[in-house]
Amino acid sequence: MKYFSLNHNAPEVSFKEAVIQGLASDKGLYFPQIITPLNPVFFNVIENLSHHDIAYDVIHQFIGDEIPEAHLREIIADTLSFDFPVIEVEKDIYSLELFHGPTMAFKDVGARFMSRCLAYFNKDEKDSKNTVLVATSGDTGGAVASGFLGVAGVDVVILYPSGKVSDIQEKQLTTLGKNIKALEVDGVFDDCQDMVKKAFLDESLAHKNLTSANSINIARWLPQMFYFFFAYKALKKLNKPLVFSCPSGNFGNICAGIMAKKLGLPIEHFVASTNVNDTVPRFLASGEYDPKPSKATISNAMDVGNPSNFVRIQELYNNDLAAFEKDFSSYSFTDDKTLEALKQIYNTSGYIAEPHGSVGYLGLKKQLQKHDNAIGVFLETAHPIKFLDVVEPALGITLTIPTQIESVINEEKVSVKISNYEDLKAFLR
Ligand SMILES: *Cc1c(COP(=O)(O)O)cnc(C)c1O
Q1: Of 18, 36, 232, 321, which is most buried, counting CB atoms within 10 Å of its CB?
Q2: Structural Rg of the chain based on CA atoms
Q3: DSSP strand pairing (210-211 vs 2-5)
């Protein structure tokens, strides 16, 4: 499969090159040349297929023959080593739980898949290594650290803002050792992000083969299609239209859902639910795309002012706004509303959500007013324990610490403090 740059000013590349480069040389995001809908027979028999078989059928066209079938199936089995339950929260409203992986965030799926693809592509390059460089405000770093731990030929360097990630998140970044290095930056998330961007453009670091591991990388973005198919498999027997609400930051997750629909998955409508970082809801209201600097909220993994995957969504609709609005809505919610919903969900059903899922729930409820007879699914993108500072006081409960978290919480933190770009360069050299 060939990929082109959405800035249209860089050569087409293979899947392998797109994964290794991350971003095209013209700074555009890569996008597949051809998207072929799946055979309708697939949807007729989906309830008889395993998650691993579904995932293979969904993704293999995007890889072509660049990874042999048997190996791709191994990568998928390794990636999807945990479950994706669909839980009924109230009548006709379901939570698609994406947090049962090793770091308890949905980003585990993309990080595990990407790391294993890179490892495959690196297997014959004995003397060159790739360095994955990521800036994180919380969840991405942990998923990438865990996903890439021990992967041959890949070093991982994670930059995070000192004192601005939760204790659990910090432990997930700093305690693994081996090929994972954590840099604690004296600054905020934007400072980390700026340094990473600068490093990608720095010729003097070209020999480090730097690559990104956020959702701009196709190998992190595309596997996120899988769980929309899994939810469909679970809910198909209800035989009703499906509306999905994704708590959205960089819009990678929802963009994968729209790709799934392009492949033929019968989804009636998508809702991108955001916190007060509302660039996309404002765009739908005014027709003007006007990104703003991000604001801090309690659903901080979605504190994104300029969602990087939105250009991919526009490409999926050929920039046809009317067609887009038929399938897609987007609403923004304040922290107060988010907390209110968190409590309401708990009080009426006993279900413990967390701030991101709660934003997703709010958007879903709003959209369902426009759909008679539909089933709504909101994505629960992290385990409540990851946001215990918000969830415990709001609900007046004490959460039990899951084993995945327990295993890092008592490990010793190892990080290197840096304060500017020169420090980062010195570290990478
Ligand atoms: C990353 C993240 C999101 C946002 O996902 P996007 O694909 O960037 O829109 C939502 N919730 C949690 C918990 C996250 O970590």
Answers
A1: 18
A2: 20
A3: unpaired
